[in-house]
Design goal:
Elements (H helix, E strand, L loop, with lengths): L38 H4 L2 H14 L3 H16 L3 E6 L2 E3 L4 E5 L6 H54 L22 E2 L4 H10 L4 E7 L1 H7 L8 H10 L3 E5 L2 E6 L4 E7 L1 H10 L9 E4 L15 H11 L15 E4 L2 H18 L4 H8 L1 H18 L11 H22 L7 H16 L3 E2 L1 H7 L7 H13 L3 E5 L11 E5 L1 H4 L3
Parallel strand pairs: 1-10, 3-8, 3-9, 4-5, 5-8
Antiparallel strand pairs: 1-2, 6-7, 11-13, 12-13
Helix pairs in contact: 2-3, 3-4, 3-12, 4-9, 10-11, 10-13, 12-13, 14-16
Length: 503
């Protein structure tokens, strides 16, 4: 650690005695209140009633249950159905959700209300598949012996000049049955690629804590090779994974849902230390107030969600003229397209004056609304309240757009408040975090650059941050005399005790 916390430069001592009233807004960002969840305005009567009761039973805010329902239903639809407003634009129905809250906020119980029925269905499917796998393994053993015998016969025939025998059918056990994976909690990119290549409808990444996953993927440098994989997984694009010593894995449509929790402090640290305005912006943050501590007054019907999951699992990918499986593209009606155009214009207006992470987040909202409109339509079919949609109507898209405008957008402004402002302000917040972390009472720009923190890698970032903090009277310049060899004076900055919590 730098020696600065222990030794204050003598020239800075007079500057530590009195400070003017500082602008402390950079020290504590104002976090907006969470928006009200428009449950009844967005979801059908049966779904709204079930999600409210499930949240009450789990002691969690209904917001967490909503995020889990949309994530699970979207992943189950996966590549079987895509929403297509018009030719050339198609979206996979996989919204990504990040639920935010302290350890006691009920994140895991809210997720479990939907993830446990999903895992129950997966367990039943895996038990049924295990018998097929056992039969295949027995055939594979016979096939291995048949292959070995055939090869010996070929060698013998070649040796005496006879025609080699044809390979017997018994040497081919056929394709190995797939073990279903409806959700994974932690898996390497290579493992997920194998799952996706054999299960083309897609799957769901569901983690109690997203912090480790995000920290590994939310940097432009040092994120390894996983970042491109996940960027493509959001868009459902073709992807190939190269494997050491083995054949590469090709995936026609890499479509993966994501849902998980994160604590506010971990998110705050991630926002300060991250340059990400790409992958992080794909996650829909959900950060409500905790639910009241009370005994459940009602209990939810677990068979409702189990039946919905079962019905969504009956969806199949149709085959094209070449026999290759692909999504069924669900078109928009004309009035739904008109409403989408109006929504896109509104998004363009929201972008004005916005920068960084929020700008990237807002830019993705038209696609998010298109995805959610298909999920909402398919949820009503899964619950038996409607026929399977052949089109996305103005009602479907209107409710999705309302959820985005009235809830997801203000929720993102709440979650990303500490990443707001222009680049100089974001660098200033990063510098304040570094000062507090290092315990600096005084520092130089070179000390800052030496740490190589995000938003503070070079003087083009450091100097604007210093100017912002000087203007706010959170630091002040101390002019040092030239050294014995002369040269330009060294710039030292004294730190207002309020920054370190000493005032």
């Amino acid at each position: 650690m730098n020696a600065m916390p222990e030794q204050l430069h003598p020239a800075a001592v007079p500057f530590m005695e009195e400070w003017p009233d500082a602008d402390l807004r950079l020290l504590s960002s104002e976090i907006p209140e969470p928006p009200a969840l428009p449950l009844e305005q967005v979801f059908s009567a049966c779904w709204a009633d079930w999600m409210r009761k499930a949240a009450d039973c789990k002691g969690a805010p209904p917001d967490y249950v909503v995020a889990s329902v949309l994530s699970v239903c979207g992943s189950l639809i996966g590549n079987t159905r895509w929403a297509s407003p018009w030719q050339g634009w198609a979206e996979p129905p996989v919204p990504w959700f990040m639920i935010i809250g302290n350890p006691s906020a009920g994140k895991s119980p809210g997720l479990d209300a939907v993830l446990m029925p999903l895992k129950k269905s997966e367990r039943q499917m895996r038990e049924a598949a295990q018998g097929d796998i056992n039969d295949w393994r027995a055939k594979a053993e016979v096939a291995r012996l048949a292959e070995s015998t055939w090869k010996e016969a070929v060698k013998a025939a070649i040796k005496v000049g006879d025609e080699p025998p044809a390979r017997p059918d018994s040497a081919n056990p056929g394709p190995e049955p797939v073990m279903p994976r409806l959700a994974v909690s932690d898996a390497t990119v290579e493992k997920l690629a194998v799952i996706m290549s054999s299960q083309p409808r897609g799957t769901l990444l569901a983690r109690d804590e997203l912090a480790g996953w995000l920290q590994g993927m939310s940097r432009y440098s040092g994120g390894g090779s996983d970042r491109p994989f996940w960027l493509e997984a959001y868009g459902g694009r073709a992807y190939s994974v190269e494997r050491m010593g083995r054949d590469p894995v090709y995936i026609d449509r890499l479509t993966l849902g994501v849902v998980g929790g994160i604590q506010p402090d971990r998110l705050r640290s991630l926002l300060i230390k991250s340059d990400d305005d790409g992958l992080l912006a794909r996650l829909m943050p959900v950060w409500p107030h905790p639910a009241p501590v009370k005994r459940p007054e009602v209990f939810h019907d677990e068979t409702f969600i189990e039946n919905a999951v079962t019905r969504l699992l009956t969806l199949q990918m149709p085959a094209d003229e070449r026999g290759e499986r692909r999504p069924w593209f669900v078109p928009f009606t004309n009035d739904a397209r008109d409403l989408l155009d109006s929504f896109r214009q509104a998004v363009r207006e929201w972008e004005v004056g916005t920068e960084g992470l929020m700008l990237s987040f807002i830019g993705k909202l038209p696609g998010v609304a298109v995805r959610l409109s298909l999920v909402l339509a398919m949820m009503e079919w899964a619950s038996g309240e409607a026929q399977e949609p052949q089109e996305i109507t103005i009602n479907h898209f209107g409710r999705a757009a309302h959820l985005v405008e009235a809830y997801l957008l203000p929720m993102a402004k709440r979650a990303y408040a500490e990443n707001a402002g222009n680049p100089a302000q974001r660098s200033a917040r990063a510098l304040l975090a570094l000062i507090r972390e290092e315990g600096w009472r005084s520092f130089t720009a070179r000390d800052v650059r030496r740490k190589q923190r995000t938003h503070l890698q070079d003087m083009e970032m450091i100097n604007p941050a210093i100017r912002v903090l000087e203007t706010a009277d959170l630091i002040r310049n101390v002019e040092l005399p030239p050294g014995p060899k002369g040269g330009a004076p060294k710039r030292l900055y004294a730190v207002n005790p309020a920054v370190r919590g000493d005032a």
